[in-house]
Each structure stands twice: as structure tokens, then as C-alpha cells.
Amino acid sequence: MALKILHTADWHLGRLFPSFRPLDQPKLSQARLAAVGTLLGIAARHQVDAVLCAGDLFDSDRPTEEYWKRLTKLLAEQEPTRPVFLLPGNHDPLRPGSVYSLEHPFRALLPKWVHVVDRDDFEYALSPEAVLLAVPCRSQAGSEDPTRKLPARPHGDTRIRIGMVHGQTFDLKTCQANFPISKTAASELGLDYLALGDTHSFRQVLTGPPPVVYPGAPEATDFEEQEPGKVALVFFPRRPRPLRIQAETVAGYSWEHVRVGSIEELRGVAARVDLGRRVLQLTLNLTVSLDEQLELDALLGELGGTDAAAGRAAALRVTWERVEVDTRGIDALVPELPPVLQRTVQRLQALEREAGPEAAKAAQALRHLYQVLKRTGAAA
Amino acid sequence: MKLRALRVASFGCIRKANVEFAPGLNLLHGPNDLGKSSLLEAVRAALLLPHTSSAHQKFISWGHPELAPQVELVFELEAERIYRVRKQFGATGKSSLEVSRDGLSYTQEAQAREVDSRLRKLLRWGLAEPGRGKRAMPGSFLVTALLGTQSQAEELFQRALSADEDSSGRDLIRGALEALAEDPRFKQVLSQASEQVKRAFTSTGMKQRGRTHFWVQLKQQLTEADERVRELIEQQTASETVQRELLKREEELAELHEEANAAQIALARAEKRLAKQLEWSAAEARLVTAAQAVKRLDTAAKAEAEAAQAVSAAEAEVIRAESLVTAARQATEQAAQGLKTAEAQHVQLEGDAAVQLVAFERLNSEKQQLVRQLEDAQREQAQAEAAAGLVKKANETAKLHADAVQRLTQAETKHAELTQLVTAESAARVEAERAEAWLEILAQEAEVERLRGLLAGRSKQQAELAELEAEISRVEKKLKRAELPSAAALSSLEQRRRACELAEQRLEVGLELRVVPESPPLQLWITADGERREHSAGEGEGVGVAARQRLELELPGVARIEVQAGSPEDRARATALRVELDGALAVVLKAAGVTSWEQLEKLLAAAARLAELRQSREQAVLTLAAGAETAARLAELEQASATARQAFVAPPAPLGAGPTPEQLPALLTAARGAVARATQALSRLSGEQTAAERAAQQAQADARVLVAELERDQADAAAAALALEAAAKGAAPPAERVKDLQRALAELEQRLALATAERGAALGAAAERLAQASREHTAARAAQDRAEETRVQALQAEATAKSRLETQKEQQLEVDPASIHAERERARAAESDLKAQLAELAGCAVTELTLLTEAELEAAKQRAAEAATATRLKQSELDTLRGSLTQVGGDVVTERLREARAAQQQILAELDAKDLEFGGWKLLQESLEAAAKEEDTNLGAVLAAPVAARFSELTGGRYGRLSLSAGLQATGIAAAGGERQLEELSAGTQEQLATLLRLTLAEQLQTTLVLDDQLSQTDSARYSWFQEKLLEVAKTTQLVLITCFPERGEFLANAGANCVDLGKVIERE
């Protein structure tokens, strides 16, 4: 084997998840650091010659101290013989004051085998037979193809040439401001492998030769992403045998969006045994009775957990698209109630029948009443 | 409220006093005329009287009238809400109200006139805002109840809550008493709803505003999310603007590039076009000269061509004619040859047909022979097959015979065994029958014993039946004259009664009339239950009129007014329903022959009892009848048992002379088992015997088998003879031979048919070919003749044309046609080429070609220069925009905006959910309260219950239900089976009842009660009861007892009451 590398990107360390409950947000943020630890472990296990990190390693160019410090600790645990290359991406571009700038304490704490791509003519000899060429992002947006700054293969150069840039290979007009990358750049420049970052799904843009690859985010960031949570292990055999790319899973969590149309479906979700490492989005669109509404609350509590008790799902986000409660179930309790409570029910039901905002509140009030009566057994 | 301290100076007979109060029971004692009641007045003045009021005159110091009366009261409304009110009355008067958390440091809350206004709001005792015109000490129901003086016991019963100036007192009492009256389930729900509402809303219904409250936090989060979204939208807009501009500039630049290129191309084309235009002019001149020569040459050439064409045509015609002749000759020869061949073939075929006919006849002969052979062979085959069948059948019959002989032997053996077993089974069956008979005898005897026992109790049942008959007779006599109402009539009565009660309950609303008699004098009567009673009322006194009472006021000489509670409709309805009920009831009672409902109920009970008795009687009669049947059955059984015993003279051997009943079942089981086994074996052997008999029948076929053997021998002999015959002939077995012959016959017939068909076809074809050849020969001869004729005509035409061509050639030798032709072709080619090039350069079709001028060429140069300049400028703009793009957020901003919007939506959803959740709680609380209000809680009834309970306890059950109106006015009390007016009670009892009412009220309100020389007319026994009760109430409520009997307080002092010797704390004037 001439060369082995691990190609990763889009860690987005320090990313916040404000659309999740405060309870789940830190869990999801911390999971990204854990995924970095996992991928560095894979690099060690496969004894790769280098780890290429192709941009967006931090969610912003000014991450909080907690994240860059913990990253330096993880990187310091690597073997000195295995160089690690950090490429600034469009989320964490190289610019004055950014985490990659020379004056930032992050740079000072980095071990010497970790290299930040901070020049447009960055070139590093991975071995006598292989060279890495990389160009950093210097802004959040740009219309120039970064591969244009990479040098073409000189005549007579037979080494393995690996390019690393951050951007989008799309040809759509709307993506022209996000560092558009020509799909044919790799072959035009005489590269053997073009390592990209930006897209969060594992994707081989061109199967090659030469291959153009996005490894995707090691930990998902959204429910829409396809096949996130991977890194690419690239094996370069002696010529003329073709190189081999192997996708390795490193994610701690898998993200899943479930649409729930009935209480039975929710029961089915709650009964699943694979929720422990699952980030779950539930979109509720259903009609329930009063009893089922109590059950719905209980099931959601069980799935999501509280400050005191862990939920069955790793994290839960609920979208209440439409949840209608049929309050007629309270009629069964009415005959057993004292007159004053009967009158209260009648008043609320009359309000519920009227259109307007009070109707919704009346329905809610009936739910509360039913809940209290049920819980305290006061209807008995 | 709890009093903490009172300080008084220059107040009536008191020069100075300083009293500290404990939270529970306080006993203030001192001799008469010390100023005890002045202390109570001081409390009232501090809390109720504005310092400007003229009523302070009665508090002016006896010793120093020049000094303004002063009072200071410290009281606690709730935990850490301690108030201190200070007042100085008179012309130099002033007031202040301060508040403190610890009772040490105070801050001013109000002063001057504001003090009383604030105090009344804090106390909520039903006092209106202090007005300038109000001079007297203000009063209200609660003031009377809590701070009443010695003389106000009666006033308490008569003062209505509704007479208060302000509704605050009523609301305070309702709030406290409703809690007492509420259903526990209602309380539970209301409590939870209130708790939830408190979490989200303030007491004024506003959302909580604490910094850590979820409303505030959510609002804060939403504001931040909104701000974040707004910022990101701005960034995204900027980013998109730059991107759009960039795209637009790039498109424009591309267009400009295209335009510049187009201008350059146009210029180049114009220059080229001009050059081509010059070339074209020269070529055109040459073309004119050449065209003239060509024209001449064309005329000559045309004539020559026509001549040459004529020669060529003639030559061709000759050649064609010659070829036609040659062909015709060949065709004629071929036709003649074909005719000869056809004739020869025909002759040959006729010879072949004769030969074939001979062969056909031979084949027919062979066929006839083969058919005969086939018939012989088939006969032989049939004979052989019949013989083989006979042999097979005979073999099978012999085998069957051997089997039958063997089965017959077995059947004989089984028959012997069967005979033995039949004998054994008969013996076992007899034993079993005898055992069963013995068992039946024993069972009959047991039944006889049981029946004898039953008959022994029959006399007792007969006695009970006689008693029942007597009872039925009594009840029937009682009911004889009564016609009892049906169940439907009773149900109808019950419904009427409920409707009547409901209508009357609706009238359960009292009213009060305040009497201010002037002149002329007023006379009042109250009519209740038909009894009219005169009522005397003093000035300002309230007259309570309870439900179903009528008040009549007579102003002599002026008018007579009748007042009654409830609406006339409700009253009329209640009355109508009552009348209706009474009427229906009277009919029923009359029919039943009774005068009251209770009597009717007794009659109904008696009727029910009669039904029960009759049922019991029927049961008893049935039991006795059953007894008679039992006696008959007993006699029958006794006889049967005796007969059976006699019949069972000799018990079977296994039973012996006296088998016990316990032994019998085992013996019987053994006997039954033996019978079952024997029966089973018998059944099996019977089957085997039947099989054996069948086998024997088979054996009878022996004779037939012998015959079959004989036939078999004959068949064998016949088969052997046939085989020998066949072998002698050396032929194949008959079956094979038949098959061969059939095959040969079929082949022969096929060959015959084929030969016949071929012969017919060949003859037909030969005749046809002969006819065809003859026709072709005739046609070929005719064609040859026509071709000869054409050839002659063509030779003539050729000679004519050649002569004309020779003449033309001689004429053309004068010019050089070759050079002229070449020149003409060159000129034409040059003209055509230049026209095409010019048309291409001009960009139009050849027919529309226009010539380019010098000016047009200059314009094209100008356009090319302008396009190049515009392109440079656009490139510069594009570079600037690309630089701007690095300053905006791009895709990162779009991603963050998406996240921020999702977060914003989540917060909004949470806020909406909270709004709905707590809005629901609030609406639930409001609905509960409104429903409770609609329930129209009767405060009087609620308060009356605990007061009456205590009063009953005090009086040893002499008094029962206390009637308090909705306005808490006492209207009567139940005693000695009737409702008594309070005036009918002794003064002491009235005072005790008033004290209990005040105690209960203070207890419910959790506020201080001052009892000034109360219970002075109470005997020691009741006083002791009161002391216990005061101690009990004082555990939760502050009580202040002012008394001139220190010895009466000894017990309370010993029980831990705060005893204050007023003689020590009051300095008299």
C-alpha cells in the first residue's frame, strides 16, 4: 500500500440546536466532539498516514473556548507520526481574529503534527510518493472555484497528488456564491483524489478516476440529511491499481423524522427498542379522545424525558401540526359530578361550541377538568 | 386580622393606657368604671372614625378637655404585613397609617383623610369611603359582630348584611363561608385550578412578570429569536442582493462579450466584402465580352446539335430494327425446336402409360392374396388368445381352493372356543344381576328411612300454616274496606309531590323591609301559614319576611300594602301544584278510606305484608301436599323393600349370607368386569366364526375347481397343438404374421394410388406443353416478319440524317468554338462565386444583394470599438462585486436563518401552548366560580349550621335548627317541635346565641373578636362550656375578652390565656 488517509469534514463543533428543548441541546452539541474522538480512533486503528479535515470543523470562526480547547486535547492524543490537516471552511473561514488565525490561542495549543491550511499555496509532502495540496476558505461566501488556485501536475511528476478544498460542486446558479467547484477540476489538475467538505451527506461526486468525494458530517445536524455520520478511508495502492474508498460510520446518534397520524402509531413508536441512540422528530397530526390525550402527554413525557428522568429517545423534537381533542368523553363523568361541577362543564361546553379564541380555551379547560377529575378520582 | 398593641391618651376617662395583645385568647379584666369599654371604643375609633368626625366629642378627656384624644393601634393583617394607625382627634387632629414587615421599622402608607379610606379597603368590613357629611361612628354588620358593645347582642340578630354601605363585608363573608359550603370535589378542582392560575397570573389577572417566570423567559427568548432572525434576514438579503447583482453582471458581461465579438466579426466581414466587391466588378466586365461570343456560338452549336441528334436517332433506330430482326429469327427457331420436343415427349408418355397399366393389375392381384392371408392369421390369433386365458383362470382357481381348505380348519377351532366362552359369560351375567338387586334393596331401605324422617316434621308445618292463615285473615279484614291506589297512581302522586316541592323551593327567598315610621302611624302584620300576626317595628329597624310569609302594612286612612316574597307566577304555580297535589291525594286517601298519607303508607305496608303472607301460605300448603305424597311413596317403598328381601332368598355365593353395604360396590364392580370381559371375547370370537363360515362356503367351490382344472388341461393341449402347427409351417407366431400382412397390404395400396396419380399428371402436362409450343411457334414467325419491315425503314432514315450533318459541319469550321466555350465557363464561374461571397458577407440572399459603402465600413469600425470599451467596464464591475461577495454570509447565513426560524417557531409554539394551557386553567377557574355563584349559596344556611350545632351542644339539645336569612338575620330557631322567634328566648339565651354567632363568624374570617362583658347573664354551667369553647376557638382566632369578673377568668388564665389587669395598665383621669 502506497498511502492510507482518513478524509473527514463538517464537524461543526460548537453548533447550537436552538430548535430543540434546552434539555437536549447540550447533548447534541457534545455528541459532535464525541464523533471526532471516534474518527480519530478509527484513524489510529487503521494506521492511516494522514487525517484530512476538509473544512467547517467549527460551526463559526469564533467558537467558544470549551470546544477549541477540547479539540486540542483530542488531537494531542494522536500519534505524532500521523499528521492531521485542518482546513478552514465557509462556516469557519480563515480571517483575522478567527480560530485559525495565528494569534488565536487555539493555534498555540495545537500539537506540532496538526497543520492548519492557512496559505493558498499550501503543499505538504505526505511521503516521498505523495503530496497534499490545499486551499482555505477566507470568507463565508465566494464565487471563485478554490481549485483554480491549486497547481497543475508538473511534467514528469509521478507522485500521488491529493487536493483538499471546501465548496459546492453544484452547477446551479443559486450555489455560485458558495465556492463552486468544477467537477472536472481534479482531472484537469492531474490530481489522484479530491477531498471536499461542505455537503453533510457521504457522496462520491465522481467515482473517478480521479474520485471527488464528500465524506459528510460525522454527526448529523438535520433530519433532512441523507447518510450522514461517516468518514472516508482512502487506500492508495501501488500504481496502476485503482485506489479504494471505504465509508466508516462514526456517528453516535441517528436522526429520524416520524409523522404520527394516530395514537396507535405513537404507541408503536414508544414501544420501539432502538430509541436510545435516536434523535427523534415527531410531527403530530391526529385527533384524540380525552383519555388518549392523557396518554399522549404521558407517551411524549416518556419519550422525551424530563430534567429528573431520562427519556427513551436520545433527543426529541415535537411539531404539533394538528392535535384535536375530542372533549365529549367528559359527558360520561357528568352524571356523577356535583351540580356545581355539572354547571361548570355546561358553561365550558357552550363556550367550546362558539367560534373564536375562547372555544380553544374552553376545550383546554375541559381537558384540565377531566385531567384533575381522573387523577384525583374526584369523579368517582 | 390580629391586634398587637393599643396605646391611648386623653381618651374619655382614660388619661393613658398601654395594652399588649397575644395572638390567641386575651383576658382584659378590671373593675367597673375603670374605662374598659373606653378601650373598645378606642379600638373602634382607631379603625373606623375619621379624626375630623364630630363624634370624637364623646372621647374628650374628662380631666383635661383641652387635650386632644389620641389613640394608636398596631395590628397585623397577614404575615409580615403589620400596620400602625395613629389618630389625634379634634381641631388639631391628624391621622397616619404605617406599614412594617417586622413591627419595628415602619414606612408611611397613608396620612390624613387617606388613612380611613385605606383602612376600610384593608379591613373590608362593609364600610363606604369616608365622606365629609359622615359624622357618627360608622357601623356595619361586621363592625357589630366583631367589635360589638354590650348592648348590641340583639342588634346583631336584626342587622342585615345587605344594609351595609358597601358590599365588601358581604364579599368577605361570602368568600369565607363559601369555602365552608363547597363540595369537596369542587374544592379540589378549584384549588388545583387556582394553583395553576397563580403560577401564571397575578391576582389582577395579568401575566406574572417575575424575571425568572416562564412568561418573561419565553418572551425574552422570543425577542432574542426575533432579533436573531431579523439580523439573519438582513444578512441574507444583503448576500442575495450581491449574488443577484453578480449573476446579473456576469450575464451582462457575457452579452457584452458577444456584442463585441459580433461587432469585430461584422467589421471583418465588411472589409472582406469590399475587396470581393472590386473583384466582382472586374469579373462582370469579362463576362459581358464572353457572353456575346457565347451567344453566337450557341446559335451554331444549336443547329449542329440538332443535326447530330437526328443522325444519332436514325442510327439508333437502324440498330434497334436489326436487333429486332435477329431476335425474331431466333425466337422462330426456338419455337420450332420446342414444338418438336413437345411432340416427342407426348409420344413417349403414351408408351409409358401402357406399361404402368400392366404393373397396376399385378399389384391388385398381390393385394387380393395378402387379404386372404391376413384373414387366416387373425383367426389363428383369436384361438391362441382364448387358450391362454383359460390356462390363467384355471391357475387362479386352484390357488383359491387351497386357501379355502385352510380357513375352514381354522373356523372349526374357533367355533369350539366360542361355545366355552358363551357358557362363562352367562354365569357372570347372573352373578352381576344378583349383586345389583341386593344393592337396590339396600338403597330402598335407606330411602324409606329418609322419608320417615321427613314425615316426622309434618305436624309442625301444619301448625305454622294455621298461624299463617290466622294472620292473613287479620290483614285481609284490615284491608277489606280499603281501595288501595295502583303503582301508577302512587308514582303520579310522587311526581306531583316533587314538582310541588320544587316550585315551593323556588319561593324560598326572604326579603327585608326597613321601617321608618313617621306620621301617620304604620301598622304591620305578618301572615305565615294562614296565621296573621301584628308586628311592631322601631325606627330604622329591619323587618325580615321569610318565604311564604306575607307582610301587610297599613297606613291608616292612606293605603294598605301587601308584600310577599317570590314572583306572583312562581307563587301561583306553587299554589296550583299544591292544590293539585292535595286534590289527587284526597282522592287516593278517600278511596283507601284513610285521612292521611301516613295512614295510607301503613295500609300499603299491610298490603305488601299480605302478599308476602299469601306467598308463605302457598309455600306451606305445597310443603304439606308434598308430605302426603311422601307418605304414599313411603308405604310403596316399604312394601317393595319387603318383597325384594323375600325374593332375595339365597344371596349369590360371593356375597355370602350377609354382605355389608360397604362391600357391595366392590363386589358388583368385579362381577360387572367379568361380564364385560366375557362379552368382549364373545364378540371377537363371533367375528372370527363368521369369517370361518365364509371360508367354508368357499370350500364348497371345490367341485367347480376340479372342472376348471379339466378345462385347463384341454386348453393346454389346444395351445400346444397350435404351437406345433405354427412351428411346422416355419412361420412367425400368428399375431406377428397378421401385423406383417396388414403392413404389406397398406404399402401396396399406397403404391398403387401413387402410381395412378403420377401417370395422370404426366399425361396432362405433356399435352399442355405440346399446345403451348405450337402457339409460341406461330407468334415467333409473325414477329420476325414485323422486325424485317422496321429494319428497312430505319436504314432509310439514317441515310437522310447523315447527309444533313455533313452540311452543318462544313458551316462551323469558320470559328474557334473551344476557346469561346472555355472563356464563357470561366466568366460564369467567377460571377457566380463572387455573388455568393458578397451575399454571405452581406448576410442576405443573392437576389437581395446590396453594395457596401465606405461610410458603412466606418460605422462598423466604430461599433467594434464601443463594444470593446463596454466589455472592459463590465469586467471591472464584476471584479468589484466578487470582492463584495466575500463580505457577506452566503450559504452559511441561509443555514443559520433556517435554524433560527425553526427555533423561533418552537418558542412561538411553546408560548401558544402556555397561553392555551394557562388560559384554559384561568377559564376553568372563572367557570367554576361563576357556576358556584349561580348555585346561589345561601350564606345564612351555611353559617347557621355550625352555630346551631354549638348552640344545641350548649343547651343540651333543647334547640335545633337556627334560621338565618341570606343577610345573616336570625329569623327563628327550632325548639320543642316548632319554630320559635328569638324574642321568645330569654335575654341570657339570646346573648349566648349571639356570642356563638360572633365566635363562628370570627373563626371563619380568621379575624379578631372583641367580647365586651359578654355572657354576664350566663349561668356557671354554660359559662364553663363557653370557656372550653373560647379556648378551642382561640387556637386559630384571636379573642379579646373584656370583663369585670376576674374570678371568671381564672380558668382561662390557667389554660394559658393572656391576662391583662387593666387596673395596672390604665391610668384614669
Secondary structure topology:
The complex is a heterodimer of chains A (380) and B (1069).
Chain A: E1 3-8, H1 25-45, E2 50-53, H2 65-76, E3 84-86, H3 105-109, E4 114-116, E5 122-127, E6 130-134, E7 160-166, H4 185-188, E8 193-197, E9 203-206, E10 212-214, E11 230-236, E12 244-249, E13 254-260, H5 263-270, E14 278-289, H6 290-304, E15 315-326, H7 339-353, H8 357-376
Parallel strand pairs in A: 1-2, 2-3, 3-4, 6-7, 7-8, 8-10, 13-14, 14-15
Antiparallel strand pairs in A: 1-11, 5-6, 9-10, 11-12
Chain B: E1 2-11, E2 14-20, E3 25-29, H1 36-48, E4 70-78, E5 81-88, E6 94-100, E7 107-111, H2 114-123, H3 141-147, H4 153-158, H5 168-181, H6 184-200, H7 214-456, H8 458-479, H9 487-506, E8 511-515, E9 523-528, E10 531-535, E11 541-545, E12 549-555, E13 559-564, H10 568-592, H11 597-647, H12 664-699, H13 702-729, H14 734-812, H15 817-842, H16 854-885, H17 891-934, H18 939-954, E14 959-964, E15 970-975, E16 978-980, H19 987-1005, E17 1009-1012, H20 1020-1033, E18 1039-1043, H21 1050-1054, E19 1058-1061, H22 1062-1065, E20 1066-1068
Parallel strand pairs in B: 3-18, 3-19, 17-18
Antiparallel strand pairs in B: 1-2, 1-4, 2-20, 4-5, 5-6, 6-7, 8-11, 9-10, 9-12, 12-13, 14-15, 15-16
Helix pairs in contact in B: 6-17, 7-11, 7-12, 7-13, 7-14, 7-15, 7-16, 7-17, 8-11, 9-10, 18-19
